[in-house]
Every structure is written in C-alpha cells, then in structure tokens.
Amino acid sequence: ETGVTQSPTHLIKTRGQQVTLRCSSQSGHNTVSWYQQALGQGPQFIFQYYREEENGRGNFPPRFSGLQFPNYSSELNVNALELDDSALYLCASSLNSFYNEQFFGPGTRLTVL
Amino acid sequence: QKEVEQNSGPLSVPEGAIASLNCTYSDRGSQSFFWYRQYSGKSPELIMFIYSNGDKEDGRFTAQLNKASQYVSLLIRDSQPSDSATYLCAVNAGNQFYFGTGTSLTVIP
What is the pLDDT of residues A25-52, one digit of tens each? Predict the structure, then answer.
C-alpha cells in the first residue's frame, strides 16, 4: 500500500458528459501527477501539480484539466468525454516534482459509452 | 520515435534464472530513470530508481544505466513465479515523464 487513494474506483459515463476524478496524495508528498493508461499500453503523462500549480503537461487537449488543493489532494476533470477516453486513470504522488520516486494509487477505471 | 522503448515480450524464464529487461530512451537530457512492476488489473509499483551511470543493486534487483548509450536495464536474479508481471520503464525529462509500453515477464516454475 502506497497511501495514495483515488475515487471512485469505477465510473461509467456517456459521450459528451463531464467527469471529475479525485486523488489524495501520500502523507508528506506535495506533488501529484495524473496518467491515462489504455489497455495494453504504458501510462501516458497528463499533467503534474506541485504546490497547487501546474508543473508540466503532456500531450492532452485542454478539456483535460486539474486542480491541486492546499492539502495537496488533487482532481482531474475531463469535459466533453469521448469514447477514446475510456482508460485507467492513475494518480501518483511524490515529494518535490519529477526527480523523486512517484507512488501510484489504485486507479479509476473510466468507461465512456 | 517513441521517447521510451521497450521490447514488449513476452519474456519467459525458468524459476531461479536471471531475467534481463531492457529500455532505451530518446531524450539525452533525461535525468532520472525508474522501473515499475504492474500486475494485471493493478497499478504500477515502484521497484527501483537510478540517477547516475553504472549499477544499482537492491536485493534481487539490479538497475543499470548507460547515459552515453541512452540505455537502462533491469536484472532480476533468482526469478520467482511471483515476479511474473509487466515491467515498465519510466524516464523523467525536464517537466515530462514518459513510460514505455512495458515488457511482459513470465517465470515458469
């Protein structure tokens, strides 16, 4: 167990809807990164938040957005859902950005119908 | 060209043998390198990280980094059936973090 928690575990949405996924970081960690993992693929970096500011972003459209709160928990919001957004969404926490080890939560399985 | 490349496998080794997993990366500015293990239906679990050229050992695992060749590897000694999983190589380059597609390892009892 890493101490990183995510909610919900599973989610089913329809195309065009909006979704919010949540992550609580490991105690003492100030950085949260989000990843999308499609079946059979490695995780794809969406973005990272460090001390409530976006600290890096992967090749994802603006309809993927996020927040980090003062307690370092984080949200991932996806607007205008598309079928290809169906994936496992992973949150990882670390201390002080990318250079340190990232520890993953259990993930949220999103299905878009 | 992908930022991080791994042989997808599957790689099969007998129990007790050494498993060798390889990874190449494209960004010469990459600074930190990680190996994760992922069991089917689970999230990635950190095994090792390495920042400097050379070898780093932790129990049955050894990570090897060669920045000149842009190559990082993971050796698993005395492989056990519980090591059967997908192994993901991950690389930090600036404010980006890249994963390979993973190598599937099966340890045969």
Answer: 998 899 999 999 999 899 999 999 998 9
B102: nearest CA partner in chain A: A42
DSSP assignments along chain B, one per residue: --SEEE----EEEETTS-EEEEEEES-TT--EEEEEEE-TTS--EEEEEE-SSEEEEETTEEEEEETTTTEEEEEESS--GGG-EEEEEEEEETTEEEE---EEEEEE-
Among the partner-chain residues A98, A104, A106, the one whose CB lies closest to the CB of B92 is A98
Q: Would you call A56 and B34 a contact, using CB atoms and an 8 Å cutoff? A: no
Residues with Cβ within 8 Å of residue B41, at least 6 apart in sequence: none
Instruction: Indicate the residue of B46, B51, B102 with minimum beta-carbon distance to A42.
Output: B102
pLDDT of residue B1: 63
Mind listing the pLDDT tens digit for each residue in B36-88? 999 999 999 999 999 999 999 999 999 999 999 999 999 999 999 999 999 99
